[in-house]
Amino acid sequence: MSETHKSSDFIKFLKILDAKYPKGEKIRLILDNHSAHTSKETRKFLEANPGRFEFIFTPTHGSWLNMIESFFSKITRQMLKGIRVSSKKELADRKYQYFDEINEVPVVFHWKYKMNEISSTECA
After folding, report:
1. Nearest to 27 by CA among 13, 39, 41
2. With contact defined as beta carbons under 8 Å apart, do 39 and 69 qualify?
3. Is the pTM of this model over 0.90?
4. In the listed set 20, 36, 57, which residue is the last one of a domain according to the structure?
C-alpha cells in the first residue's frame, strides 16, 4: 500500500482490481468522499474504462457507516492508546501483532435484520 492518498494511488488500486476480476464484470466499491475518489484524474480513468466500476459513496457525515473508520477507531482505542512508537516499522509491527492477537479468537458479527424486514422509513 502507498503511504500517500493521491488520485494516482487510488487509480493504481483500481488497476489491481481490474486485473484480478474477470473482464466484463462490474466492480462495485463502497467509498467515502475522499477527493481522490472523484478527482479529475480518477474520472478520466473511469471514462477510459466505461461500465467497469461502480462507486457507491457513504454519506458525507456518516463515518459510522464506514467499516474501516470504525476499525481504525477500535485500533486507536485498544492498541495505540498511551503508547509512543519510535519508527514506522515499530508501528507496523505493533499493528500486525494486534491483528494476530484479535484473530486468535475471532468474533463473528450476526446481522439483526433481514433486508426484507426493514421498512423504507427506517432506511430514510
Report:
1. 13
2. no
3. no
4. 57
